[in-house]
Amino acid sequence: MGMSVTISAAGAQDAEEILKLQYLCFQSEAELYGNYRIDPLIQTLDSLRTEIADHLVYVARLGDEVVGSVRGTIDEEGTGRIGRLCVHPRLRGHGLGARLLRAAEAGLAEERSATRFRLHTGHRSEGNLRLYRRAGYAPVGNATGSDGVMMILLEKDAQAPGAYVASA
User: Fold this and answer.
1) In terms of C-beta density within 10 A (0-12 exposed, 13-18 middle, 19 or more buried), how is residue 160 classed?
2) Structural domains of the chain sorted by starting position, each given as residue range(s) with its CATH number in brackets
3) Against a cut of 0.90, is the pTM above it?
4) Is the predicted pLDDT of residue 147 greater than 70, yes or no?
5) What residues form DSSP beta bridges with 7?
């Protein structure tokens, strides 16, 4: 009785479930940095609802359960910014993070005309860095997040190998 995971746009009704999943998923990051005040752990439900209304937000579902999520927005330069990628701990290592990343890239390219993609992750987050490298992202700099965590900034061109390309 296997179920397949589906990826679709999130709706306002998904906000609470996404926030709970985010809180669960980012515990390991908080532990890695010894900082339980990282941004994903202190986000409010109202701010998440605003993101769902204003940005591209995708969820992965196993049946009715939200088991993954990612968000994307576009900046004034046409760069698609991808963030808060998370996958339920019991489903990690099965390619779901890569599928969510591709969904965000596709949505940003098709719906928002992104010319490149940018994301960031903590400098100690080796699993995340491996995923992003495999997806074609390259480091372009560092920044300290508002939560004090050193972040590695990664980018790739929307037309780079491995990037989403709209079908003709």
Assistant:
1) middle
2) 5-117 (3.40.630.30)
3) yes
4) yes
5) 60
